[in-house]
Amino acid sequence: MKDKRRIIMTIVGVALSGIGDGFIKAAMLGLDPFTGAATGLSQMLGMGYGNFYAIFNFLLLLMIWFVDKHYIGIATLVNMVGIGYMIQYTSEGILRFVADMALSGMGLQLILFFIGILILCAGTSLYFTADLGVSTYDASALILKDKTGHSLKICRIGTDLLCVVVALVFGANIGLGTVITAFCMGPFIEFFNRNLAEPILCRHFIAKRQKIC
């Protein structure tokens, strides 16, 4: 039962992360840092985002394998194979809906962006807490936290800012949303860890006094 709950949290968390990123991409206020870096590189190479995302993550996976295998698991594989396409199809679907409904304006963009970042951080928190692996990019902040002793939010801000630089160099859509994401994802993920993911896991195991509780 323990493994079943963790697997469900992982699958739901990864799916929500892809949907959230799709909302952020559709908002066109600037991509989240990693998506921005990957988008810039894929545009430079003339590849579809979904295909490039899978290849790029495989290369990152090889590096993580030699640094800390602990963070490689189900979530890592699902991210590598599926989340890039989920971002692509979600953003395209939202943009088609917006065009069909003749909706536009900064207000709509802000709504899509904030819905996206909340969904993204909630999903990330779920599969972080499930501890069945994380995406190759998320692993970089977690490994940095383990190696330096700094908090997750500080390490996440650092890796996000590095991705912003890469995105700028390769001409991805960087804007207000990118900056907000870079500084807010770490704190938001920690908030959802405490108030969503850990309570979900603890509710079932509290009688056994699991360490996470």
Q: What's the end-to-end separation, in Å?
A: 17 Å
Q: Give the quaternary arrangement of the chains.
A: single chain
The average pLDDT value, as a whole number, equals 83
Beta fraction of the residues? under 5%
Overall geometry: globular
Helix content: over 70%
Radius of gyration: 17 Å
Number of helices: 8
Listing every helix as H and every strand as E from the N terminus to the C terminus, the arrangement reads: HHHHHHHH
Report the count of strand segments.
0
Unreliably modeled segments: 206-210
Biggest sheet features:
none
Helix/strand-derived category reads mainly alpha
Topology summary:
Layout: H1 2-27, H2 33-45, H3 49-67, H4 74-100, H5 106-130, H6 136-148, H7 152-169, H8 176-205
Helix pairs in contact: 1-4, 1-5, 1-8, 2-3, 2-7, 3-4, 3-6, 5-8, 6-7, 7-8
Q: Can you tell me about this structure?
A:
By secondary structure, the chain is an all-alpha fold. 80% of the residues lie in helices and 0% in strands. The longest helix has 30 residues, at 176-205. The chain starts with a helix and ends in an 8-residue tail after the last helix. It has helices at residues 2-27, 33-45, 49-67, 74-100, 106-130, 136-148, 152-169, 176-205. The chain contains eight helices and no strands.
Keywords:
globular; 8 helices; mainly alpha; single chain; 213 residues
Sum this structure up briefly:
The chain is an all-alpha fold and 213 residues long. The protein has helices at residues 2-27, 33-45, 49-67, 74-100, 106-130, 136-148, 152-169, 176-205.
